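Hey, resending since the last one bounced:
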Amino acid sequence: MKEIKDQEQLLSYIQDFQLESVFHEPLFPHLSLYSFEQGELICSQGEASQYLYVLVKGKLKIYTSSHEGNTLILSFQKPLELIGDIEYVQGIDIINTVEAVSPVTMIGIHQRWLKKYGSDHAPLLRFLLDVITKKFYLKNNSMSLNIMNPVEVRLASYLLSVTLDEFDSLFKNQINISIKDAANLIGTSARHLNRVIKHLCSVGLIERNKGTILVKDREGLRKLAGDNIYE
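The structure tokens again:
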């Protein structure tokens, strides 16, 4: 994580996403702009929660882990998204691990300033309520779809989410993939995932070569995934 000391850029993001009323004058001096590299963790499950982050650029992967070390993808998020909102409201540790899928820019503010200047600020409270209720609605849907959809759909959705399409600033259709990690993240066995990858290769949707997967037919993956269950 690196702090971006650029007040004009910070103000530009605030204006672009119409957050002027949310982060009113007493809060604004305590806002900072941060950048995270691809693959960098923003926060980890079980850590003490200190900051509220607002995603303004890039893509995030959100996943949960069990005590046995198994992981499961919950969602991929693009702007505008909040990280640490539920933890701030509930006063609890970080619920899920959040990782940067692409280079990410976030507005951050320490919870102590939110408690001091935002606890009775109605626009901020309405903003948090709106974001949190939408988050629980989407999480309920995504968890249900994750359980009910076959592995082919989950893998297609995963590949669409971790590779950047032609409309992203960093176009990338090829990824390094760990079968064990990918199987854990989409909730299946490595053996079954290998079978599904072999099938998708045979129908020309992807190509596998020495630990990498190349997306050959993004539109075909979109049709297979339907409504991407992770986004």
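The chain has a mean pLDDT of 89.

Sorry for the duplicate.
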